Amino acid sequence: MEDVSSRGLHFQLSDSQRNRLRKSRELLREAPGNYHPSAFVNIADPIHVENEATVLKGHGTQVLDGQLLATLSGVVERVDQLVTVKPLRCRYNAETGDVVVGRITEVGTKRWKVDINFRQDVHLMLSAVNLPGGIQRRRTVIDELNMRSLFEENDLISAEVQSVHSDGSVHLHTRSLKYGKLTNGQLVKVPPYLVKRLKQHFHNLKSCAVDMIIGCNGYIWICAAVDSLPSNPEIEKITGDSGAPEMDSCNESISLKVRENICRLANSIRVLSALGFLIYPDTIIDTFDASISKGVAIKDMLGAEFLVMIAEREASRRTKNNYML
Amino acid sequence: MVHDRPDGRNPNQLRPLVCARGLLHRADGSARWSQDNTIVIAAVYGPKAISGRRENPARAVLEVIWKPKMGMAGPSEREAEFILKRTLEYIVLTAMHPNTAISVIIQVVSDDGGALSCAMNAACSALVDAGIPLKGLIAVTCAVDKDGVIYLDPINKEEKEFHGHACLVFPGKPMSSFAPAGLALDSEPIERGIVTSVTKGILSAEDYLNCLERSRAASVKIAEFARSSLEKAQRGVELVVAS
């Protein structure tokens, strides 16, 4: 567990709840799998390495007079010969192949500018999207003029990072059927360092009829599962549309049960991010099930009692199973 | 002849320091630095996108905005912004993030003397909080001089009465002790160098060097305080709780 502050969420804790939370945090700190206190470094602290010449200096380090110093304050990660310093809080760092969820901010000549919580606005080139009609062809002037029919300002899209250039600019692409415009759901923003890079970022929760896209940039999209919607998937075969099934911006009406599931999942993610726990499907579903089994109403999930309960659950799980790790 | 200070401190005593980090939710990094009644909040946004003529393809552009407690920003605020910009450019590794801008915004909450040094300490803590790579930390102190006696960390009353005033920025010492030779630049060890020096009024050369020595000793204490507060922030409980 990383110690992070939950920005933006305030909790009114009573004294007993505060004590319980403090106890859980101490248990979690002692539990195995946590960072050893010596791994924390501050700026200009020396990092101990056996042989400075053979070590690969990664992000957050600099060499001064034969000594390896940290330029960021955070934890030292050593992977074989690579030494990097991972800061405890920072903006999202784009890597090639990351799945991200972003919002279109601008429509420009032959490209869209997308906001993905990165240092700069990233570009989605016209040549990097699937055109309606599905065939591969050169983009003509007509395509440029019709860019707005594909994506407009303030649309949400899912895409993959195609390349990161040396000057820091990032290009995205949506060259697959699973990427494209997002509708019928809710966006949850969490700090990007709480999202691990996994094999799968698209999750389908069949029991709740909900789809989840966990973007590496900290934007998480929860929406009604495509097959639970009343729309007819045959239609796209007839028209030959090979983009995302709903390319128009009107949202379908979703049943109350599915909407409740979406809200409950979104609140579980918010609670996890407030406690600073890593966010991936297992923890989200676990919190979701805990809230259902304890009969917590959706609006109470952002209250202090549920927060303390989740912290205690995690603390007891880690200390109980430590021999199994 | 040593005057009595209005608040009863002796000439070498600093005011109590308090540093809080991460108070602003929307900023990438923030810090509030207080020295008794002088309180300054610094917010850092960045690295973020910058447009047009101001962007530099080789390094990040650092911009500082100083907001006084009352009234509009005038020439003295512009001067403070310039000094801060040059000082922070020394410690920020701007070449790591080309084509971006790092904005530092300083808000003076209350000013009882030494606002510039307080602001520089706050800005440094906020940069660390934002996760921006830095070469090292800085520690800033100021001092006034009257009749050859140096008084550290002056309050407003003292600043108005005394003849010479100096604000000095030193590099924060690294935690481990380097070899006795240390880092050297023209045979002067880097830990003992000065980053910035701002002086006002009349100071004789002897008094200025005296000032330097005392401030350097005080800056070591400030650097230690900043480091320990950073370590506490790294490991402490950090839920925002409203009590």
From TrEMBL, chain A:
The lineage of its organism: Eukaryota, Viridiplantae, Streptophyta, Embryophyta, Tracheophyta. It comes from the Eukaryota. Transmembrane segments: none annotated. One of its GO terms (cellular component) is nuclear exosome (RNase complex). Residues 185-225 form the K Homology domain. The keyword RNA-binding applies. GO terms for molecular function: RNA binding. The keyword Ion transport does not apply. Keywords: Exosome, Nucleus, RNA-binding, rRNA processing. Residues 91-163 form the RRP4 S1 domain. Pfam families: KH_6, S1_RRP4. This is Ribosomal RNA-processing protein 4. One of its GO terms (biological process) is CUT catabolic process. It is found in: Nucleus. Belongs to the RRP4 family. It comes from Ceratopteris richardii (Triangle waterfern).
From TrEMBL, chain B:
GO terms for cellular component: cytoplasmic exosome (RNase complex); nuclear exosome (RNase complex); nucleolus. Pfam families: RNase_PH. It is found in: Nucleus. Its main location: nucleus. One of its GO terms (biological process) is poly(A)-dependent snoRNA 3'-end processing. Keywords: Exosome, Nucleus, rRNA processing. One of its GO terms (molecular function) is RNA binding. This is Exoribonuclease phosphorolytic domain-containing protein. Gene3D superfamilies: GHMP Kinase, N-terminal domain. Residues 13-133 form the Exoribonuclease phosphorolytic domain. Belongs to the RNase PH family. It comes from the Eukaryota.
